[in-house]
Design a protein that fits this description.
Strand order of the largest sheet: 3-2-7-6-5
Number of strands: 8
Strand content: 5-15%
Structural class: alpha+beta
Largest sheet: 5 strands, antiparallel
Shape: globular
Distance between the termini: 13 Å
Radius of gyration: 22 Å
Number of helices: 18
Length: 416
């Protein structure tokens, strides 16, 4: 990860940094949860089977041209290019052959193409039923309307999820707490309130809620995974490892837990074991961008730069509009101590692209841009950008970035 990025949490955020490229190891899947709604409950089994066959036929007819059509997605459909919020835990994203992703309540995706009530999610490579989503931009308003009509524990929970997605953590905590007041054994609301506390960096409260959720449902791999993330943040690596091992005993192909266990191994300087876990996560989900970025970080630690570049290039192909992999590759190509690896022109192009994706507001990408300018000998320009990066960086990162500025002031490129 770049010198400045974060461990993926399935939620992007924070700036927990390993001096990777610029992005940092990405912890994955702080997972939101709601007990699954009973889809098609009460239908006759023959009707259900017919419905499933019909869905498969519809999906088959739609999937053939999806990726080609994506390039010329009709601007006439206002849903294309807009974000949607998952409001049913377990909502499948599918192709005719298989379910390619089982969604978490509160996940956010961008619609690339539409066909009636079906939405093409390019990052997962499958179709999602629109009825299991709400528009991201109006999610709080729509779910507040449901709450006005029926003030149930479930509806408080759902609106809390919308607040969480919009980073309104205090309001999310209030709604989850009200949901729990009405239904104290709702382990999903405990999990989600724990997530809100996690994102506010209140890790003791987060661990407490995850622990209470686990006490209600000890076999939930989601809760075990999430508590492990909170343990990682507090450098409690052995408890984190125990939770992740427990989750993987229950579900061996849980990609997020494999990725997160790889992060624990990385933290313990067990780089080879980290690579094994990241590779296992990618075997389960070859499009898992966070695991690609994390494995690239491990390759970099082993000075296997070709492998690191390959993983970052693949991450960019899968998710070209997210900045982390672009930023990480720019950092590697502009700061690597191996002269044969550095590519000044490509690094500059990538650094500017990453800054554009973040509207030149992300300190991490600004530091990378400074490194790219310094690598080309443009030290005055580099000095401007590293100073802006320092101004925008969290307190924990300022000292490291000041070291970069000292190198630039001395008219030296940044090298790792």
């Amino acid at each position: 990860m770049p010198a400045n990025s974060d461990f993926p949490c399935c939620i992007s955020g924070g700036n927990f940094v390993e001096n990777y490229g610029q992005s940092g190891l990405r912890r994955s899947a702080l997972v939101v949860d709601l007990r699954p709604l009973r889809f098609l409950a009460g239908m006759d089994s023959t009707v259900i089977q017919y419905f499933r066959i019909l869905i498969s036929c519809v999906l088959f007819s739609m999937t053939f041209a999806a990726e080609a059509q994506e390039q010329r997605a009709a601007a006439a459909d206002p849903r294309v290019g807009k974000k949607i919020l998952i409001v049913r835990h377990g909502a499948p994203i599918k192709t005719p052959e298989a379910t390619v992703w089982t969604s978490y309540l509160g996940e956010v995706f961008t619609v690339a193409l539409t066909n009636g009530e079906w939405l093409w999610i390019s990052e997962k490579g499958g179709w999602l039923w629109e009825k299991e989503t709400v528009p991201y931009d109006s999610a709080i308003q729509e779910l507040s309307g449901r709450l006005t009509r029926m003030a149930t524990s479930e509806n408080y929970h759902l609106r809390g999820v919308a607040y969480l997605a919009h980073q309104q953590y205090d309001k999310a905590i209030t709604d989850f707490s009200e949901s729990l007041r009405r239904a104290p054994k709702n382990s999903g609301a405990l999990n989600n309130r724990g997530k809100a506390y996690y994102l506010k960096a209140n890790y003791p409260a987060s661990i407490n809620d995850f622990t209470r959720a686990i006490a209600i449902d000890s076999k939930s791999v989601l809760y075990l995974n999430n508590r492990a993330l909170a343990f990682i943040e507090t450098a409690q690596y052995q408890p984190a490892l125990a939770d992740l091992n427990a989750a993987l005993t229950l579900v061996p192909d849980f990609a997020e837990a494999l990725n997160n266990r790889g992060i624990v191994h990385q933290k313990l300087n067990q780089v080879d074991q980290a690579i094994v876990d990241f590779t296992a996560a990618l075997k389960v989900d070859p499009r898992y961008v966070d695991a690609l970025g994390n494995r690239a970080f491990s390759w970099r630690k082993k000075q296997q730069y070709g492998n690191a570049i390959s993983d970052l290039e693949q991450a960019i192909r899968i998710s070209p509009l997210t900045y982390e992999a672009t930023n990480d590759l720019a950092w590697l190509l502009s700061t690597c101590a191996d002269d044969s690896i550095r590519q000044p022109a490509r690094a500059m192009e990538l650094a500017k692209a990453a800054c554009g994706m973040t509207e030149y507001r992300q300190w991490n990408t600004l530091d990378t841009l400074a490194a790219a300018f310094a690598d080309q000998g443009q030290f005055e320009e580099a000095g401007k950008w590293v100073t802006t990066a320092i101004e925008n960086a969290p307190a924990a990162e300022k000292t490291r970035l000041m070291g970069h500025r000292e190198q630039i002031t001395a008219r030296k490129p940044i090298r790792e």
